[in-house]
Amino acid sequence: MTQNSVRIFEMSPRDGLQNEPVFTLTATKITRINLLLRCDFADIEATSFVSPKWVPQLADGAAVMVAIDRPPSVSYAALVPNMTGFDHALAAGVDSIGIFAAASQSFSQKNINCSIAESLGRFQPVMAAAAAHKIPVRGYISMVVHCPDDGDTDPQIVADLASRMMDMGCYQISLGDTVGMAKPPAIQKLLDQCVHAVGGAYLAGHYHDTGGQALANIAASLPYGIRCFDASVGGLGGCPYAPGAAGNVASEAVAEMLSKAGFATGLDHDALAVAAKFASSLRQPPANRPSTKRPSNNQPSSKRQTP
Ligand code: HMG
Ligand code: MG
Questions:
Q1: Closest Cα to residue 33, out of 282, 265, 275, 284?
Q2: Ligand 1 mutation target, pool 18, 50, 119, most atoms within 8 A of CB
Q3: Ligand 1 binding pocket, CB closer than 6 Å
Q4: pLDDT for 185-228, tens place per residue?
Q5: Do the Cβ atoms of 153 and 144 come closer than 8 Å?
Q6: Which of 35, 75, 125, 252 could form a disulfide with 272 if both were Cys (CB 3.0 to 4.6 A apart)?
């Protein structure tokens, strides 16, 4: 990869779909991923192997993985929160996994039902198993700028966590503006610390677009040497445990912006337009979307604190 090429890590099958309240048929998920292949993505996050009680939408991850086309040029990733998830991901034949932590204690509890320190403990055996199976691990950190419950995040906390996860063996850390309200000055403050801690080449931007600032945040990240951004075709998505957060920035908008700025993404813009149209057709109308809480029949274990 040259200084002028940027990788767009496609999130729509996982981050895009996990928040859709009505179950998307497995066959539709497979069709979507096969459409994404025409866009020439090198990295696609295909699903997650989390508790189906927590994210029912992605309970069919194994069935999706077994049926999608597997060109050698594409690496399929999946999120895993613990060893159960790792075992399922391995059996399903993923190419890489993502472990996901948070920079805010409240979100860590809401999202994975444990503290930040406990989550790192859970990741240790996952990292060891991944190393034994030669599976690359990406680290995610959520709420890197602001958490609706805990307020503004101290960039130093994110930088320390990023360092810790790199030391554990992650190949890259994806910095999540989960609620999508960050503006470029806040991203710059964050990157001042994180780039100092781990280096821009090991970071990715994962910017949700609730406040319409994600493209500006990407532009602000480029001078820090960041050359990988997470995005979702059609802007699909959100996190079920971060109420109100919109989807990742749209992949087609990122590709266009980067191309105008002289960066190569290797993506086919026409195919992106087709995939974005299909993604939009899957989006639930607002009336069908949950407001701030999941339906009670989707509530996970009683240990979970409600948002
Ligand atoms: P828990 O309830 O504390 O876990 O949840 P548990 O160990 O007590 O298990 C509860 C049940 O789930 C048990 O089943 C387990 O076997 C089962 P039961 O005995 O009740 O029948 N279980 C599993 N089943 C399948 N796969 C698994 C698994 N683990 C346990 N891996 C847990 C803890 C971590 C499991 C739960 O909190 C969870 O699954 N959370 C995932 C939430 C999630 O996926 N959130 C969205 C992704 S993160 C995100 O979107 C942010 C990101 O995009 C970046 C950003 O934007 O900031 C990455
Ligand atoms: Mg996200």
A1: 275
A2: 50
A3: 15, 18, 48-55, 79, 81-82, 84-85, 88, 100, 111-113, 140, 142, 176, 178, 206, 208, 239, 241, 300-301, 303
A4: 999 999 999 999 999 999 999 999 999 999 999 999 999 999 99
A5: yes
A6: 252
The single-letter code of the amino acid at 306 is T
> What does the alpha-carbon distance between residue 16 and residue 278 come to, in Å, rounded to a whole number?
13
Burial 113-129 (b: 16+ CB within 10 A, else e): bbebeebbebbeebbeb
| pLDDT, tens digit, 9 for 90 and up, residues 142-196 | 999 999 999 999 999 999 999 999 999 999 999 999 999 999 999 999 999 999 9
pTM of the model: 0.93
Q: What is the average pLDDT value for the chain, to the nearest integer?
A: 91
Query: Rounded to a whole number, what is the largest CA-CA distance in the chain?
Result: 51
CATH classification for the domain delimited by 7-284, as one of 3.30.1330.10, 2.30.29.80, 3.40.50.300, 3.20.20.70:
3.20.20.70
Q: Could you tell me which residues are beta bridge partners of residue 174?
A: 140, 204
